[in-house]
Amino acid sequence: MGMPDFSPLGYFKELHLLPRVMFTLGGGLAIASFFVRSQNLVMGLMGVALVFLAVGLNLLMDSAWRESDPPYPLRFSGHVIVQSLVALAVFVLTFYLAIHLYRYGTLPAILRPVQTVH
C-alpha cells in the first residue's frame, strides 16, 4: 500500500492545460479582490466567473471519448454535458453581474434589497 498524494496541486493533474490556466487566473483574481480598495466585488466576481468557465470547459472536453473496439465510434456522456452546461450558465450569470456592477456601480434591480417606506 503506497502513500497517497497529499500535494494540493494533485487535484489539477487531471485537468487539461487551458482549464488549468483559467483556474489559476480565476483563483488569483478572486484572492486579489480582497486586497484591492476599489472594484473588489467586480474582481471577485470575474475570478469566480473564470473558475466556472474553466470547470465548464474541462467538463465539456471530458464529455466525449472513442470506444476501444473498431470502428471506434465517438460516444458522449449526457450527464457530463448537463454538468458543463450548468457550470457555463453560472459563468454567464456571474460574468453578467460583474459587467453590470462595473458599468453602473450597482447590482441589477432584481438583486437589490427591498426599500421599505416609513
Structural account:
The chain is mainly alpha-helical and 118 residues long. It has helices at 17-32, 40-61, 78-104, and strands at 64-66, 74-76. It has one domain. The longest helix has 27 residues, at 78-104. The N and C termini lie far apart (69 Å). The protein has a two-stranded antiparallel sheet.
In short:
This protein is mostly helical and 118 residues long. It has 3 helices and 2 strands. The chain has helices spanning 17-32, 40-61, 78-104, and strands spanning 64-66, 74-76.
- Class derived from helix and strand content: mainly alpha
User: What is the H-and-E element order?
Assistant: HHEEH
Oligomer: single chain
Classify the helix fraction into a percent range: 55-70%
| Widest sheet, order of strands | 1-2
Domain module tally: 1
Distance between the termini: 69 Å
Main beta sheet: strand number and arrangement? 2 strands, antiparallel
Classify the beta-strand content into a percent band.
Answer: 5-15%
Please give the radius of gyration in angstroms.
Answer: 19 Å
Number of helices: 3
Q: pLDDT average, as an integer?
A: 86
User: Which runs of at least 5 residues are low in confidence (pLDDT < 50)?
Assistant: none
Based on CA inertia axes, which overall geometry fits?
elongated
Number of DSSP E strands? 2
